[in-house]
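pasting for the record
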Amino acid sequence: MPGEHTDRYRNFIKRLNREEQRPGALNDIKDLLDTKPAVEVVSAMRDVGISEIVQCLNVTNPSHVDLTCDVLRLCFEKFQAGEAIKDFTSNFMYLLRHEKSCVRKLAVDQVRKAVTTDPNILPVPQYIDVFVATAQMICDPDIEIAQEAVLITKNLPAKAYPKVLEELRMALQQNSSSRCNVFEIVVHISAKSHELFKLCAKMEYVDFMVLELQSDDVLYQVNVLELLSRLAIKPHGINYLVKHGELQKILGHVAELRNNPLRGLLIPGYMKFFGCIAHTYPKEIFVKHADVFDELFDAIRSSDPALLPVALDTLGFVGTTVEGKLCLAALGSKYMEAVDSVCTLIRTGNTETKVRALNCFAGLISVDKDPSVSDTNPVDHRVTLMTREWFRSLHTKPMETLFDICKNPFPDIRQAAFILLDAVCQHQWGEEMVARSAGLVEFLLDRSIVYTKETNEAKYDVIKRLAHSPAFDTVIVGRLNTYVEQGPFYSESQLEVAMEEGE
């Protein structure tokens, strides 16, 4: 039977040479592909080829082009990932560079399928031209194709990048969207290994990114800053920026913002950039460049709606580490005024602001997110004292205030409140406050209150933490441990079913 299908396929292919028979032949091929097992039609295609089908793309009739694309799509779907590219490499090179976007999309879909299934399906030496052609499509005028090319290029085998990055330099001469696509690839692969980062740096991609901050296109600048922020949180990224003077250049741009009429659009990007660096290297930033955070503190104090969201996110991110907390505290009144403002926003802000402020405060109070803190390396005593004082800034009765927020009817606010409560309970002083708060433990153990999945999980984290606390008597600890054993989503109906089955 397989030979019969090959003969039929060959006859259909021959009919493609006659224009009047072409639509019928394409539909016959389509029917064959639709109705026969993959193994048999794949064998036929390998024997006869697909070149004649590909040639049908070069006609003026749009309906014929669409039909041809449908046939080719069916052809490729019959193959395992990467196999069609291996069997018809020259055809794919043609399809990837075709003038019609629907054709290019057809080809790039198959490359994506191969690379995302296994980056090594297509060995680099044999298929480097396919990888390069795909990478060049990040400049494609069709945004969907360009984005798909970015996804593929970010996930190629490491051996492909020397050639691919060399060819991508041409994209730096294209529009800002294409340049951002290049930078996104560079940042992504730089995070994979120090060796790939060195390759990107050697080809001057990082220097070019910093240079682009001089662009007159504000939105483009913001995008570049976002990408530089992702690069700067990696040790090799920030080390390069410092060692090669690029960080100093960026600081120079910050100083120039005072006279920039569009500063309101740019400040959030710079704020986030330096926040990312300060999270990893707080001493270096706060000792030498503390003034770059003046805008952040001003935004929080003034509740500037344009800057407040990123200011809160950045402050919380910087303060998640012990070193970050100590550096912030060293700023004195400037920082404490910001803490007071965050607490005011928690009490009086709108829903979005309240959630962000709660998450920010949780970052400042929490110590668990710092990898330097462990059972064998307890938190610095100074941090214990500082965080307790910061929490007291929430209200004259801070735990009662937080308890009330945990009962807020808005799910996002409740979830953020439980996250803050979990941060508070990472300290002995926090556990003791909970133990002294009338009704709080009963509230936590009450399963009759309906929460979202995320809020249930956040509350469960609090209870797991309290279950090991010496602040409670054995009866309460027993109830907390029972809750932990039952899990976050246990319900009374489950208990009833279990009892009935037992009877």
